[in-house]
Amino acid sequence: MISVVVADDQLLVRAGLKMVLDAEEDIEVVGEAADGEQVLEVARRVRPDVVLMDIRMPVLDGLEASRRMLAAADPPKVLVLTTFDEEEYLYEALRAGTSGFLLKVSPPEQLIGAVRTVAAGNALIDPAVTQRVIAAFGRRVATKPPPATLAELTARELEVLELLARGLSNQEIASRLIVGDATVKTHVARVLMKLGLRDRVQAVVFAYEHGIVEPGAGA
């Protein structure tokens, strides 16, 4: 059973999310919060697997709540609920260690899939917002010197990292490189392991921070 806390300042939004999630046999909403301070307290008390985190909330916004939550020991996975006009927050949320983004207008099946994805330890960025996230990185990130661990990547692994950072899915990378999906998954896993990264979201952060991809370059 995947336990979830829903954080949103709008009662109707929380009720809708709870209704959709509680209808699934393997998901249970174990808490709700209307502001950032409240979600920190609820998460400490019920220790959920996943927190659905709205960004714009009173008292303490979802971005700062995510930072504090993810800085604690054994934190839950945080899936940010976002709208298209919150692009400025996306970069900071990624750096805070959130597991990804989901648009509030997403269909119920996408929400359910996203909760399962992040609960399993994987990262997720809604395809509709991926390119906006990447564009935000290109405007905001100053390049850092590449770390020594980067030299451990093979030429093909570096190529996979570049494509991943430009927002391509495993299937799209496989098509671009003319290899199987399983091969791409293996390459992605090795890239994350060698660079000490948790997931694909961190790989995007890493690639832009260290100049592996050029802002504005096409995929």
From TrEMBL:
Pfam families: GerE (PF00196), Response_reg (PF00072). Coiled coil: none annotated. Residues 146-211 form the HTH luxR-type domain. GO terms for biological process: phosphorelay signal transduction system; regulation of DNA-templated transcription. It comes from the Bacteria. InterPro entries: CheY-like_superfamily, NreC/VraR/RcsB-like_REC, Sig_transdc_resp-reg_C-effctor, Sig_transdc_resp-reg_receiver, Tscrpt_reg_LuxR_C, WalR-like. The modification 4-aspartylphosphate is found at D54. One of its GO terms (molecular function) is DNA binding. Residues 3-119 form the Response regulatory domain. Keywords: DNA-binding, Phosphoprotein, Transcription, Transcription regulation. Signal peptide: none annotated. The keyword DNA-binding applies. This is Response regulator transcription factor.
